[in-house]
Specification:
Length: 225
């Protein structure tokens, strides 16, 4: 019987990557900056969007949202209440989003003058970091209530993220930790990406992240329409 060599260098995720590259071409044809938000469940991804999307709209950078969850449409309902176009993906047990899911969801969004597409990934610090979806930037979100050891336990996400958001910082006075503890742990893995401290109790805390998003958009697409 004839034997054939198996090329073990072919990435297991190669099909997903190819689909993601197609996604990216579609996004860029629409002049959309795509942000993949990744975090544990309950870290505040949806709360972040509820606060950031209206600010972006005020600055002339309206946004769209693709919501990923194992079940329910609760997060999408929250976003829709802010008058932001949103499509829900339910993975029915899968712990991450994949490129083909994003394409199907995106086809349901009618893009008009929107400039930023947020993908709120399934709450998980492991699998979502491994799946490229065609996004321009990965953003890691970590709440102070999770503890400062999370970056070291789940290093891939924090190494690859273009930006890290530390949420619920208003709770720091009630914890035996400091913001310096969190920043130090993140910097062990990623010494260049900005770290923004935010809290829904302090609306102004989101502005630096909003400015970062706008600068990312301008660096890719410029100011032309």
């Amino acid at each position: 019987m004839e034997t054939k060599d198996i090329n073990l260098n072919i990435p297991i995720l190669s099909k997903n990557v190819k689909e993601a590259e197609t996604n990216k071409k579609i996004f860029e044809s629409k002049r959309l900056l795509v942000i993949n938000l990744i975090s544990s469940p309950g870290s505040g991804k949806t709360t972040l969007l509820e606060n950031v999307a209206p600010m972006l709209n005020d600055f002339g950078y309206p946004s769209l949202v693709i919501e990923g969850d194992i079940a329910t449409t609760r997060d999408a309902e929250r976003i829709n209440k802010k008058n932001i176009k949103c499509v829900q993906i339910n993975t029915h047990g899968i712990c991450h989003l994949e490129s083909k899911m994003i394409r199907k969801a995106f086809e349901q969004l009618h893009v008009e003058n929107e400039k930023i597409l947020f993908i709120e990934n399934v709450g998980n610090l492991v699998c979502p970091a491994e799946f490229y979806l065609g996004e321009h930037e990965k953003v890691a979100i970590l709440s102070v209530t999770e503890g400062e050891d999370k970056p070291e336990k789940y290093p891939l996400l924090f190494k690859e993220s273009s930006c890290v958001l530390l949420t619920k910082v208003d709770l720091l006075p009630f914890l035996d930790l400091s913001k310096e503890d969190f920043i130090s742990e993140i910097r062990k893995l990623n010494n260049t990406s900005p770290i923004f401290l935010v809290s829904k109790k302090e609306k102004d805390s989101y502005y630096k992240f909003v400015e970062w998003l706008i600068q990312k958009y301008l660096s890719i697409f410029g100011e032309g329409q």
